Amino acid sequence: MRIILLSGGSGKRLWPLSNDARSKQFLKLLRNDAGRLESMVQRVWSQLKAAGLSESAVIATSPTQIDMIRSQIGQQVPIIAEPTRRDTFPAIALSVAYLHTVLQADRDEIVVVLPVDPYVDASFFEQVKRLAELLPESGAAIGLMGAVPTVPSTKYGYIVPDRDEPRKTRYYRVSHFMEKPDEATATKLLDMGALWNCGVFAFRLGYLLDAMERKGLPASYGMLRDVYPTLRKISFDYEVLEREKRLIVLPYDGDWKDLGTWNTLTEEMGSMVIGKHVKTHGCSNTHVINELTIPILVLGIDNAVVAASPDGILVTDKAVSPKLKDYLEDTREPMYEERRWGWFRVLDSRKQPDGQGAMTMLIALEEGQLLRYRRNLDRHEAWTVIKGKGILTLNGEQVVVEQGRTFEVAAGAGYALRAEEEMECICVQTGDFSIPNRWEALEEEWNELIVEGAID
Fold first, then answer.
1. What is the pTM of this model?
2. pLDDT, tens digit, for every residue of 381-411?
3. Domain 2-262 is in which class?
4. What is the 8-class DSSP label of residue 149?
């Protein structure tokens, strides 16, 4: 069995903590068994490891999320990067081409596609294994998993099983689907034995390769990547699932929740208050999450979410928080991002009428990590080390830089920075802000930068 984890999302439903670079699955708001905060993707990856499935898993994502994934779950995780976002069918097709071409997976191998951010217990992944085992014997083309509903929810899609068919197995044939019904319809669906759609698909590798061939898509990973930006944006549900009649669904009678909005996420958070210098008084069922260094004081506000980050501040009643996405069409560029080497936060950004401007950032490098050799083509950079020590390579020369040291990087100059111990730096970029910041990557590995007689 092979696992494809889909990691996407525009980062709007949990704004201001989420953004295009840090979608909901990367927010460290859940508490693990050790009491430490972890993200949804960290939680799911640890559950995959416990179930013995992580070695067979790959993650399909956008280029903007690669650093975040590597930062949170490791540098060696196999990642399939979409050249552009094209929805779930192209992403799954690209992943199948990768399994077929790069990993040489057999056409009869079972592939299970999972979202990267479900809130489930360990039994969910045992049921995933059962689904992969049942699919060949069922004769179905695609197997699904459906969570047994606890309430007539209007937030989820439903899988309606064929209850008229005599059943001697643990699964049902699928009758039809129903997307996010109203409450009255949802109540009727529960009476029909409908299941919440978990977004899990299982199929033979060869089944999707054949479907791709019929649609004129190459099975070669490299060739499919080349034409990927031209593919139509369409979901797997519309392109494949709703056209296939040979479907089964395996019920899952355990904890399952989509933590996609503030009101659902806060139900599973281990703390009412997260962040520094936060105080509340007389607030019933109000959660406060503060990523800023300034204090937040909340008085007498019930059933609310107060969230603050460098991207903005949100104060919302929990009941209306799912509408948040409707108001975020014109949000600015992300002000905080995690990278494989650490993180950075924009402290200030301003632009003059003539396009000239300045941006001040706080940049943190973890011990042993490297800002790889590159050039900022348009902007001058002035750096001040405020914590730790590292080695700077600037135009072929290497020097030790530590707390209190300043250095400047002219536009177009090549530089790299390796942290000998955990570092924090203030970087001020100045130059032309009328166009997007342009970078040129140079040598990738630190050893390629070592010159005779230099510090290593």
1. 0.81
2. 999 999 999 999 998 889 999 999 999 999 9
3. alpha beta
4. P
